[in-house]
Every structure is written in structure tokens, then in C-alpha cells.
Amino acid sequence: MRLAPSPDRLLPADPATRALARTLYESVREAPILSPHGHVEAALLRDDQAFTDPADLLIVPDHYVLRLLHAHGLDLDELGRGSSQIEPREIWRRFATHWHVFAGTPVRAWFEDTLHSVIGLDEHPSAANADAQFDAIAAWIAEDGSRPRALFDRFDIEVLATTDDPAAPLDAHAALREDTSFTGRVVPTFRPDRFFDPSAAGWRGALDELHAVSGIDTGTAAGLIRALEDRRAHFRSLGATATDSGVVDAWATRLSAGELERIHRAGLTGEATDADAAAYRRHMLWEMARMSSEDGLVMQLHPGVLRGHHRPTTERFGPDTGHDLPLFSRYTEPLRELLGDFGTNETFRLVLFTVDETSFTREIAPLAGFYPSVFAGAPWWFLDSPDGIRRFREGVTDSAGFYKTSGFIDDTRAYLSIPARHDVSRRVDAGWLATLVVTGRLGEEEAHTIAHDLVDTIPRSVFRL
Amino acid sequence: MRLAPSPDRLLPADPATRALARTLYESVREAPILSPHGHVEAALLRDDQAFTDPADLLIVPDHYVLRLLHAHGLDLDELGRGSSQIEPREIWRRFATHWHVFAGTPVRAWFEDTLHSVIGLDEHPSAANADAQFDAIAAWIAEDGSRPRALFDRFDIEVLATTDDPAAPLDAHAALREDTSFTGRVVPTFRPDRFFDPSAAGWRGALDELHAVSGIDTGTAAGLIRALEDRRAHFRSLGATATDSGVVDAWATRLSAGELERIHRAGLTGEATDADAAAYRRHMLWEMARMSSEDGLVMQLHPGVLRGHHRPTTERFGPDTGHDLPLFSRYTEPLRELLGDFGTNETFRLVLFTVDETSFTREIAPLAGFYPSVFAGAPWWFLDSPDGIRRFREGVTDSAGFYKTSGFIDDTRAYLSIPARHDVSRRVDAGWLATLVVTGRLGEEEAHTIAHDLVDTIPRSVFRL
Amino acid sequence: MRLAPSPDRLLPADPATRALARTLYESVREAPILSPHGHVEAALLRDDQAFTDPADLLIVPDHYVLRLLHAHGLDLDELGRGSSQIEPREIWRRFATHWHVFAGTPVRAWFEDTLHSVIGLDEHPSAANADAQFDAIAAWIAEDGSRPRALFDRFDIEVLATTDDPAAPLDAHAALREDTSFTGRVVPTFRPDRFFDPSAAGWRGALDELHAVSGIDTGTAAGLIRALEDRRAHFRSLGATATDSGVVDAWATRLSAGELERIHRAGLTGEATDADAAAYRRHMLWEMARMSSEDGLVMQLHPGVLRGHHRPTTERFGPDTGHDLPLFSRYTEPLRELLGDFGTNETFRLVLFTVDETSFTREIAPLAGFYPSVFAGAPWWFLDSPDGIRRFREGVTDSAGFYKTSGFIDDTRAYLSIPARHDVSRRVDAGWLATLVVTGRLGEEEAHTIAHDLVDTIPRSVFRL
Predict the structure, then answer these.
(1) pLDDT value at B313 more than 90
(2) Which chain C residue's Cα is nearest to B438?
(3) What is the torsion angle, in degrees rounded to the nearest 10, for the CA atoms of residue C417, residue C419, residue C422 and residue C427?
(4) Cβ–Cβ gap B309/A370 under 8 Å
(5) CB nearest C404 (choices: A15, A71, A356)
């Protein structure tokens, strides 16, 4: 089957609306990419090595792809995870013979665009062409123009934010800043989640790492807080403008100093209960807001995901293997204390994401429509699809307009898919703006201004880029 | 930018559907306005004074407008709230320079229509024309035809329901009924919420006021209930057909007489706990249903709003300042006891509203599709937008059809916006009906009948007007 | 009003999309009906008697129809329920005069198609034609071609699954298998819900029945489990491929053997608490999964309905009288233990249904998109409507594609409506596929393949037909 993505893809079906949407889309199609949240590693760009092979480039690390193959009966070690010794070519064959299972999904849309526009293939993957496509991709990988830095330029990425542990040395970020041959902007993002769970097996080790890198004793909660503050300053010195937290819920409630230290000690002696751990995490989330209100790092909140739902798979294959699953999520009550303390602080900024789209209309947009500090984050993860983006605009615009939304984030570790993901967002937003014009809710000129602001002014401003 | 709202605004984009929608809309465009729920004061019409100034008319009292300006960094005292001494012209300038933040919102749609169709402006507000528009509106205000009663006629309002405290004397309502020069119908609505929270600071004072106006001792719960019954009769004598409750959740569960009186006493001595207060409120909601099943006042329920989310703002600026926020809301279980007792009572009528639109399809429409007493209330507050109204119809019609919905309510204190709000509803309903016809789900003739019933027969019947 | 359903009904309004949707629909319009979940009785086909009368055929047993008539003030005994002696003709008259209350609902769409395509009427029901239509339907009933088996052939039903109690003898199923004059396939479905509530009045009697039919002592939980296993084998011997559970929530969590037996004993002595009953049910749901992972019966889960909301109606008229109502429903956490134990078992298969559509996007599709055993069930009950089906596809396809959905189930006891219900599903799916093609998300050839798979390959495979 011929692979030739339609130039009008994802634009509304109605001809008049589509014509206008096309114009709006064309006006932002080539705007530089601002990627203020994602999971590409800075080392990829520092090292600028050729990618390993087609499977490692496009399939093995991408849990969006793996999960649906797994759902169709492929074991993860058949797909290159764990201690599997399977050949990359075999992995690609499995993927190619299961191409139909992605029909209609955003993964399919990103993949088509990547295969066609980035790599230059002209057929849909299939059992018949699996070997030929594998070879073609391998040949493409070997080209100079396919190395990470060349693609960074080709993709026209202006800013790329990574996601990093507070104890990370950030060597790659430092190296990139000093490397005059690389002119792109790659900035770290401070993600302290693993320090927030005193009941977790790895917590004490994490405290030790943080102690080592900061020189600050993390044996007390007060010490941990000081060490986190210290590392935030380090992140800022290397260009960070934001933090991120992927907590299980959005509750942020303060503990007394005594109670906080009690739980910290219980964590050190392996005696912290689940209730202790939740209380500690919720306090630490409040601390993150307090710190952001002082140092100006934009606070991103990505709550509501139950990580590692299928324990046997986590044990065999580790995290990020496709069974992190969405939870019902609330924001209005959980964030009341935090917003009471910092919500009108001019330095503070909070971008709220969700995997429970009912919360966009019900809670996130109404919060963003009152608090100057709060912005509605772009549709994320399970919601980052053409229909998800359209429903986001439809649900959020009523209460928050366009200028209290965050602009698109790609949130991806699939480097090659970055342009495709931003392109989907630009197309769907153009379609939504066109719909507003055609139904008399917006002027055409305004729509052009907003289309531009959504990919430029707004993310620059919201993420303080 | 020229302000010229499209005559086809909010109608579907598809040309055939739009053509039919236009016909349906035209057939109800000029139907008289029935406004069975809102927050305009009866005194406005009794006194019939000219409005104060453009800011006071259009901005300062409207928390829909204030909230989004606040979200963009304007302090509420810059917008005329609190003890602010800011000039009305300055307020208008701030509003005009932030006009773009409303793009795509229903506030913008209402405002455009009001400025254009009611006041006669022909440009969008902007920094450049702020002073000129302020002056033009001020001049318009000064005209005889711009006074409340003249507008009442011009807007073709047939019935306007206000919202009133049980202790209110309702002087303005009485005066209007006796004033032969005013032929409109303005009726009070009984809203007893502040009597339901024995833990609130103002509760004892409220009881005293009710005692004073009714002559009934409110020192016991039984006395309070009798006093409320007495006041309902007074409201009915002045034309009331409905009550309203804005409780935080929909639970309505009966207490024993002993427990009820215990909590009442605890309230009087300042010892009512949060749990006491919730139990008391839920009992009183049950009592409201019991009274409605006896006196026939239509019971409106507007649950699920957390009032005054940002405590510092409430302390500085009071209630209704833009940070009442939606909560996740349930109805099926909370209302089971109440509907078990009164759900098939022929006198009883309950209109269920929500700010959590997921409850429309899941709970409200299914309840309205079985209980003869229950009606699905129109989209309210955060959901009162073109897309919100369309989603309401799409989600509610399946289980409840058209004839178990309430008809539109504007719920506004922005007097000038009343026609614009009803017009949006009429347009979107016309579009939905046209969609049903074009997709073969409804005959064209039927669609015309339903379009008429939605603005006339249905609200008249549901609210017993 | 003339009754002439449009051949293009339920297809998208946009002309280009509609043209393609029509082609897709035409390609599956006449595909045989696979009905893997429903409530028609096997005895209907064994006995092959003429239907009683128009009211009994189309109104009295159908709680979808009754509920909305009841919501408009008709008492259920006016509609033939309870010990009512009302004439069938009178029931039809009531229905006909209330025809408008169904406008826009799926009941209306099914009814129109049934009256027109199955019975051959050419007018909408009305007060004026009520008697004539009643007579015409009665005459139609008397024809040979209107008997159940003739209709089975005419409807081109290939497989019809019934829903049956574990203690049921399944005589009718056995008779149909032995009757060489009947070539259709009618299979039982194992629905053990009434054995899961040790606090219910009928539980001990149910245990006795199961003891009698299986010969296994059900005086212990272990015995009950063995007896259920025994009956599953019997169901399988008569063609069953699936089980079903209509539990109030999806929690499935294992108890210790001691605790399980303690609750069983408490049930026998009438001392089981509500908490006991919930724990027992949740354990038994886990057991059902365990059994399915061994015997391969497909496990269907239909949670989230509060049965018999209006107790006075249940007391007067029994179950299935229109006031079973949806509850907010979750799946991610409730099913974690069950899926940890059986989620990757190759024999196990779990089809998840919901009446809370927010769970499709948030939980069901993400679960189906990882677990090989999990499939997203078709929109069910309150969600089985043109818009409900479209929203299902829109919300579920992103995470689960098409091939982790179940195919349509009609879930009906209204035998005559089976073709109409499948037809609605085929039309809406054709429209959705056409939308994907027109917006560049799917190739036209692929869309044809998927349209076919949705009505054939997929339900055959998912339900192991």
C-alpha cells in the first residue's frame, strides 16, 4: 500500500472550513519547533552518533508502539526488551506484520509522517516489504544527514528541553553549552519525583546520590529540601526554565516540620507506611510550588498515572514498558492549599496536565481562567491525538481562552517523531480556529494571530524560554 | 477590527445543515424570552434608573468577565472591586486592551452581540478605541430607551425570575406587581442555602432575620422548617414558581428529629462540626423536596461548586469574584432516598443542573428518563457555551429526549446580555435539530415543533410559569 | 407523518464523507448478524409460537420504551406491567400518543426501522392511526413469516447468544441443538451474579437450586466454586463461549480461604454484612477470571449499574422496569490484581463494558491497548446510540485501535429490534471510517477491510464463536 500522507490530513472535512484551515496551517507549518517538555537525552546530541538500527531507532524504546504490539500477543522480549537477543530485523518484521493494529491511532499518524517525510519511504510497512524497508532505514541511518545534530537542524528545533534527575550531573548539557559547533538550545528540566517516596526501595539510595552531588546532608527532610534547592540553582545555571512532577495525584498539602521529619526518619529506617508516603509526597509537591514561587522555574504537574500496572512485566522488563495507566483525576480541591499560598504570586507558574480529559473542562480550564499562575497544559500521552487535541480546544477554550493554554509539548523519547507530533498539533489547532471563524466566533485575522501565538508567543511566554 | 456578528453564527458549517438550521433558528429568533432562573434584581426594574457607567454596566459586577482578566494578571481592585477608587474609564481601558484574551469564549460571543445589537457599536474593543467606546456607551446609557424597563420591553422578556433570600422582604416584587405602568412579569425564587450550614459564621444571624420576618421562632430545626414553609407561601403569593439550592453536593438524606435538633443546637452554640453541617444540609435538602411535593414550587438543584476557592481573594473582595470552581459531581446515589420518597409524586418537580458535564449522560439524563418529576437542567455556568450546549443535547437526548429537558436558563446578573445568551441557545439548538434532520433522525416538521417547544412550551411547563 | 427512514440515515452530513460512508456501509449492510450478547430466550426459538399481540411484542417487555413513557407520567400498570389487566390496544394507544417523547432517541431510530422494515408500516405512530396500526401489527403477527424462526432466517442471524442462570437446565438450548429443522446457532451464556451476594434474600435458595442441578454441595464457598465450574462445563457442552457479570463495580480482589468461608457461613445464617457481601462478590469475580483462564470461556464484565433505583417501583413491578441507573465507574485500580494474575494468560479473555463513557478513553482503551486478554466492549445500554457509538470510536481508537474492540453487541430482549440495532452500529462505524479516510488518517482500502472485520472477523475472534 502506497504511503503518501495527504497534504490536507487532519483538517476538517467541510470544504469551506478546510480551505481556511489550510491557510492557517500553512502560515505556521514551518515555524521553528519549541519543545519545552520531552524525554530525549542531551547525550544524544552531545555524542551525535549514528542511530544503532531501525528497530532501536523506531520501535524498542517507544512504549506507545510496544504496548499495542503487546496487546496483540507479542511478548516484550520478542520486541527487544529485557535480556532479549532477538535480531533487530526480526523486531521490524513483527512490527511490519502488525501494522494494521495501529490503524486509526496517533502512533500510526506519527509513524507515517516519520517514515515518509523524514526517512523517505513510500510504502506502508507490511510482511512483504519488511526486509526491504529495514534495509532502507538502515541505509538512511548510515547517512551523515541522519545523525542527531543534522536532524536537529533539519527539524528546525529552536529549543529542546530534556527531563533530568536532580542528582544528574548534567554533563551533556554543560558540554553542549560549551560546544561552539552546536548552536541549538538544549535545556534540562528538574524532575525530583523519586525523592518524594520515603516508602520506596530506592529512596535512601537516591538521598545518598543527592548528598554526593550537592554536598548537603539529606538525612533530614530539611536537608533534602535544601539539597533540592541547591540542585535547582544548578539546573538554572545550565538553562533550565522548568520543573516537572509525575505524581499519582495532584494533592499538595503542607505538613508540620515535626511530622515531616518523623516521616523522613521512618523512611530511613524502612518504616514509612503508605499513608506516610502519601503525606510526604503531598508536602513535597507544596515545597516545589514554594520553590518555584521563589526561583521562577515553571512548575509542570503531570499527575494521575498509575505506573507499572502489571507487576510481573515490571519485574521482568522494568519501567516504561507500556502499562502505565490513567487514573481518574481531580484538581480543584487537591490544589486549593497550594494555590491559596502561591496562586497569585507573580513569580509562580503552574502548568497542569492530565490523562483524564474530563478534568480539562471541569477543573483545569476553570482554574486557569482565574489564577494568573495557572495554565492548561496541552493534551498529554493518551490524549495527544488529533481528536484529543480537538476536544481539548473545545473544552478548554470556553473557560480559559487560548492565552491560558501552554502550547504544544511532545513529551517524547522518539526523536524522529518530534516534527510529526508538532505537525499534528498545528493541523488540529488550525482546524479548530477555522471552525471558529466559519461559525462566526472569531475573525479570520485574529485566527491567524492566534495560530502564530500558539506555536510561538505562548510557549515562549508560558515556559519562560 | 470591525464588529459585525455573522447572521449565521453558531450554525453548523455544513451548507445543507446550515440552511436548515437557519430556517429553524429564524422561526424562534423572535420568540419572547422566558427567563426562569437568573440573578437580576427586582429593584432594577422597580427603580428604572439609568445605569451608572459603562464599567459598572458591563464589567465590574460580571464575574465571567472579571475572572479571565484576573487570570491575565489584573488585580480585582484594578477592575473596580473591593474599596477600589479606580475610574470607570480606566476599567474600560483595561478591558479593551485585553479583548484578545476572550477570543473563542462564550463571554466574547455575548459581549459582541450586546455591544453590536443592544448598544450599536461597530468595532471590537481595543486600546485605540477604548475612550471613544467608553463615551459612546456612556451616551447610550443616558438615553431613555436604555433604562431597564425600556430594555425589558425591547428584549421582549415575558417572564423574569430573580433569586432571593427567604428573609428578603420582596418589596420590589410587591411594588412591581402593584405598578400598573409595568406590565412585565418578574417573579421571585426561593433560595434558602444560607440556612443550611449551622457551622457558618452567619448562620445564627440568618436565623434571627428569618425569625424577624416570619414571626416564627427559628431556635429549633422544627421552627426553622416551619419558618421556611411560611416564607415559601409568601414567595408564592408574589408569583414564585420555583426554589433553588446551590449546595456543594447533591446528597439529600434524612436525619432523625433528635439528631437534627442536636445539630441545630450545636450550631447555635458554635459547636457544629463539618460532619454535622453536611448531615444537616443534606437533611434540609430533603426537606426542600418534601415541601416542593406539597406546595408545588419547582425545585432547582445547582450542586457541585466549591465557592471561594482562593481564600485571600474572598477575604479581600467577597463572594462572586470569579473563583467558584466546579467539582466532580454525582446524582444517582445521592438522590436515591429523596427520589424514593418523592420521585413519583405528581406535585413534585426537580430540575437538575451540573457543572460536571460527564454527569449529564451518565446520571442526569438517565434519571430524567425514568422519574416523572425529574428534568435535565440546561447547561449552566462553565458549560453555558455553544459547544457545551451542543454536547448537552448530544449527551442528554439519547436517554431523556427533548421533553425531559428544562429549556434554557440564562442565570445571569448581566442584564444586557440576556438576549444574547438566549440567542446562543436558540442557534445551537437549531443547529442540533438540523443535524438530526440531515442525518435522518428527525422529520423537518417535527424539528420545527421541537424548536418552538424548546423556547416556549417546555420552559412554561417545566417551571410552571 | 409518513414513515420512510432515509437510506442515508446516520451517515455524516458532509457530502464527500457521506458518499464514502455509504459505500462502506453498503459493503457490510447485509453481512450476517453475530449477536454474542443479548437477552432473547432460547425457548422463543424452540417453541416458535406466534407473538402474542403488538403491545407484548413491542412495548411491555422493553424497559427502554417503558422508562421514557413512565418519565412522562404513565404508570407502569397502564403499560401492562405488574398485575395490570389493561388491554393491549390501550397500551398501544398510550404509546402512540406519546411518540414525540422519543424524538431524537435511539429507541425512536430502532422503532422506526422495525415498524418500517420488519413490519411494513408507512406512518409514524400517532393518536389518529393507533387503532389501525395496532390491527396491522396484529395481522402481521398472525402471518407464518412473522414467527420467531422465520424471522431468525429473515434477519440472517448466524449466532445468537442468550443469557442464562447457572442453575438453568438449558432445555431449550439442548432441544434446539437436536432439532434438525432449525439450523441456526443459539448458544447460552453463563451469568452467575445471583450467587455472588450472600447478603441477598434469595441467595440461599439459589445455592439450593445449584446444588440440585449440579449434585455438588454448595454449603461451602469451595463447594459453590466447584458447582459453578461444573455448570460452566455444562454450558460449554451446549455451545457457550462466554460468561457475563453485571456487578455493581469492577473490583476483583482475592480473599483468603478462611475469610471466604467465614462470609459464606455468615450468608447461610443471614448475618453477612454489606462489607462482607462486597468482599465476597469481589473474590468471586476474581474466581470467574481464574475459571476463564482455565476453560477459555470469554469473560464479559458489565459493571457500574445501580439496579432498582426506585425501591417502590421494584416492590410493585419487579426488576427490569426502567430504573437501573448508571454509576461513575473505574477499572484501572479495581482490575489490577485480576490482571496481574491472568492478564497475560493466553487462554484468558476479558471484554470490558461500561455505562460511564468517560472510562472508555481514560481506562478501558488504555487497558485494552496493553493487555492481550482485554478488549473494549461495544457501547452498551445508555451509550448504545448513534452519538454514543461515534464517541466510543473516537475515544477508544486512539489507545486501542480497531482490533482491540469487541464488535457490536445488541444486548436486547426486543427480538424484532435486533437488525435495527446492528444496522445503527454498521452505519455509524461506516461514518467514522469514512471520516478517518477523508481526514487522511486511513486508506480507503483499509477502511473497507476494517468495516468488514468489525462485523465479522473481530466478533468471531473476540467471542470465540
Answers:
(1) yes
(2) C13
(3) -110
(4) yes
(5) A71
Q: Do residues C35 and C157 make contact, with C-beta atoms less than 8 angstroms apart? A: yes
Strands across the sheet containing C157-161: C33-35, C157-161, C185-187
pLDDT at B84 > cutoff 90: no
User: What pLDDT shows up at residue B78?
Assistant: 93
From the CB of residue A119, how many other CB atoms can be counted at a distance below 10 Å? 18
Q: Is C319 on the interface with A (CB under 8 A)?
A: no
B337, burial (CB in 10 Å: exposed 0-12, middle 13-18, buried 19+): middle
ipTM over 0.90: yes
Q: Which of residues 241-300 of B touch A (CB under 8 A)?
A: none
Strands A325-326 and A305-306, bridge-based pairing: antiparallel
A15-49+146-462 CATH pick, 3.90.226.10, 2.40.50.140, 3.20.20.140, 3.30.70.1020? 3.20.20.140
Q: What is the mean pLDDT of residues C207-235?
A: 98
Grid coordinates representing C343 are 492478564
Nearest CA in chain C to B373: C71
Query: Cα–Cα distance between B439 and B433 in angstroms, integer?
Result: 10
The yes-or-no verdict on residue C83 having pLDDT over 90 is no
Task: Judge: C387–B398 Cβ closer than 8 Å, yes or no.
Answer: yes
The answer to whether residues B351 and B301 touch, using CB atoms and an 8 Å cutoff, is yes
- Identity of the residue numbered B205: G
Residue A1 has pLDDT above 90, yes or no: no
- Reduced to 3 states (helix: H, G, I; strand: E, B; else coil), residue A228 is helix
Of A9, A311, A326, the CB nearest to C332: A326
Per-residue model confidence (pLDDT) at position C280: 98
A221-to-A216, A250, A256, A355, C163 alpha-carbon distances in Å: 11, 21, 11, 31, 59
Nine-digit cell string for A253 = 498539602
Flag whether residue B401 sits within 8 Å of chain C, measured between CB atoms.
yes
Domain parsing of chain B, residue ranges? 15-49+146-462, 50-145
AA identity, residue C444: E
pLDDT digits (tens, 9 = 90+) for C129-184: 999 999 999 999 999 999 999 999 999 999 999 999 999 999 999 999 999 999 99
C-alpha to C-alpha distance for A130 and A151, rounded to whole angstroms: 24
| A-C Cβ pairs (cutoff 8 Å, strict) | 130
All three cell numbers of A39: 524525554
Task: Tell if the CB–CB gap between A362 and B328 is shorter than 8 Å.
Answer: yes
Give backbone dihedrals phi and psi of C245, rounded to 5 degrees, phi first: -135, 130
Answer whether A68 touches C (CB < 8 Å).
yes
What is the per-residue pLDDT across A30-50, written as a single tens digit (0 to 9) for each? 999 999 999 999 999 999 999
Contacts of B81 (CB under 8 A, 6+ apart): B60, B66, B317, B318, B321
- CB-closest option in B332, B344, B404 to C325: B332
Which amino acid belongs to residue B447? A
Residues of A in contact with C351 (CB under 8 A): none
Closest residue by Cα to residue B215 from B231, B204, B203: B231
The 10s digit of each residue's pLDDT in A423-449 is 999 999 999 999 999 999 999 999 999
* Class of B50-145 in CATH: mainly alpha
Residue of B nearest to C5 (CA): B440
C-alpha cell at B448: 420545527
What is the C-alpha to C-alpha distance for residues C268 and C280, in angstroms, rounded to an integer? 13
Find the closest chain A residue to B18 by CA distance: A439
